[in-house]
């Protein structure tokens, strides 16, 4: 039986195919570039506006007058084309799309490298450049080379203080930053079935950190139940029954809290090996670590306590923020001394709302820790929300196992 990428794209690995794009989205950064390229094409045709999305998430609210002017231009462009528009505060584009706007079997393209997040729904989801997005707007489709697939076999269940982010760091560390270049990662096995949708979104999100084109779970009962919450009926997909050209196995029972050391995502070690290293800031948020489950896990550790270092919390979407409000999670975070900011990308890209100073150290739940990403001269360690909570309470890198 074919892999899921082959089934969705309609050809075997290595083939070149033209495919209609079911859903395409941009954010306030890439949208500007895509609009310029679309204008240069000059056809004036904008296809399927009901399946095209503009989501303000990267620099929200605007940090300068220039940013504000450019965002206003994009508001006008969205109104002109009729595409779906999500204003400041809606949240990170990938999370907004994950809230009932991505379905099994679809081809989904975003003008952002972490668009692979949506493969969690059994879709072929990937990122493209602004010029490619302009072509999709104009024609409704694009071309792909069908990727080879690496099977990531997950067995067992997570235990202790380990989380999906730790599993993501484990496979990135095993494959390396270029170990899956232009491949699809299929997450399969009994362990895969045990993971929540939030867990799956995190694992697929970080596929691009190995160079992969896509990260994919097969839609199952968990997918069906999640989408039913948005009034969407979805059928499970039959998993690939054959082998894969490349395979790795991860026993979830063996996963411990992990850390990615700056400046590479694939330089991974147990949190315990760096315990006691002082930090200046903890950041909880992004398309990797800002979902409700992440905020709740963080809040469970800090409830009734005070953070010892500045801690910035950015919910991944307005829906996440509202759930945190209704359940008391937000109150726990604020009472513990956390600063809660507008849903969106926050300081992840180094624009504002938590940029680091020279020589400062941040423990972040984001997906990248490249040099100067969150501020010139800053250092970023990547970890799970639970590790972030333990670190915030102590003011130094700390394993969450100490708080269980």
Structural key phrases:
404 residues, alpha/beta, 5-stranded parallel β-sheet, 14 helices, 18 strands, 20% strand
Describe this structure in words.
- The chain is α/β, with parallel strands linked by helices and 404 residues long.
- It has helices at residues 4-9, 30-41, 65-81, 93-98, 130-139, 164-175, 190-193, 197-205, 221-228, 286-289, 292-302, 318-327, 329-335, 385-394; strands at 16-20, 23-27, 52-55, 84-86, 107-110, 124-127, 141-145, 148-155, 183-188, 214-217, 246-251, 258-260, 268-270, 281-285, 310-314, 339-340, 361-364, 379-382.
- The protein has a 5-stranded parallel beta sheet. The protein has a 5-stranded parallel beta sheet with strand order 16-15-14-17-18. A 4-stranded parallel beta sheet has the order 10-9-8-11.
- The chain is globular.
Short description:
The chain is built from 14 helices and 18 strands.
């Amino acid at each position: 039986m074919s892999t899921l990428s082959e089934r969705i794209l309609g050809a075997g690995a290595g083939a070149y195919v033209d495919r209609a794009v079911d859903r395409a989205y941009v954010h306030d950064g890439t949208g500007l570039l895509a609009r310029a390229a679309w204008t240069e094409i000059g056809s004036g045709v904008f296809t399927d506006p009901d399946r095209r999305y503009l989501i303000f998430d990267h620099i929200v609210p605007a940090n300068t007058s220039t940013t504000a002017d450019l965002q206003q231009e994009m508001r006008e462009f969205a109104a002109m084309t009729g595409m779906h528009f999500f204003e400041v505060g809606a949240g990170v584009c990938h999370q907004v799309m994950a809230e009932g706007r991505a379905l099994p079997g679809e081809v989904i393209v975003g003008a952002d490298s972490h668009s692979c997040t949506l493969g969690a729904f059994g879709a072929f989801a990937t990122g493209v450049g602004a010029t490619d997005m302009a072509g999709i707007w104009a024609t409704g489709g694009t071309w792909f080379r069908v990727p080879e697939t690496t099977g990531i076999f997950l067995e067992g269940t997570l235990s202790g203080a380990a989380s999906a982010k730790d599993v993501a760091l484990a496979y990135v560390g095993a494959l390396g930053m270029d170990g899956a270049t232009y491949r699809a990662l299929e997450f399969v096995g009994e362990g895969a079935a045990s993971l929540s949708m939030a867990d799956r979104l995190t694992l697929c999100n970080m596929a691009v950190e190995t160079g992969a084109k896509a990260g994919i779970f097969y839609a199952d009962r968990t997918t069906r139940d999640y989408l039913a919450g948005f009034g969407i009926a979805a059928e499970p997909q039959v998993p690939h029954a054959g082998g894969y050209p490349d395979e790795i196995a991860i026993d979830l029972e063996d996963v411990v809290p992990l850390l990615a050391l700056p400046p590479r995502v694939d330089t991974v070690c147990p949190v315990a090996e760096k315990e006691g290293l002082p930090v200046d800031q903890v950041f909880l948020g992004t398309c990797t670590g800002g979902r409700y489950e992440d905020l709740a896990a963080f809040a469970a550790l800090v409830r009734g306590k005070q953070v010892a270092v500045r801690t910035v919390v950015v919910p991944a979407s307005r829906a996440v923020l509202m759930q945190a409000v209704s359940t008391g999670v937000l109150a726990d975070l604020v009472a513990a001394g956390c600063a809660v900011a507008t849903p969106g990308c926050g300081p992840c890209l180094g624009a504002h709302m938590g940029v680091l100073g020279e020589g400062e150290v941040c423990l972040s739940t984001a997906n990248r820790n490249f040099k100067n990403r969150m501020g010139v001269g800053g250092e970023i360690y990547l970890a799970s929300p639970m590790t972030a909570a333990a670190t915030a309470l102590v003011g130094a890198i700390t394993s969450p196992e100490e708080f269980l």
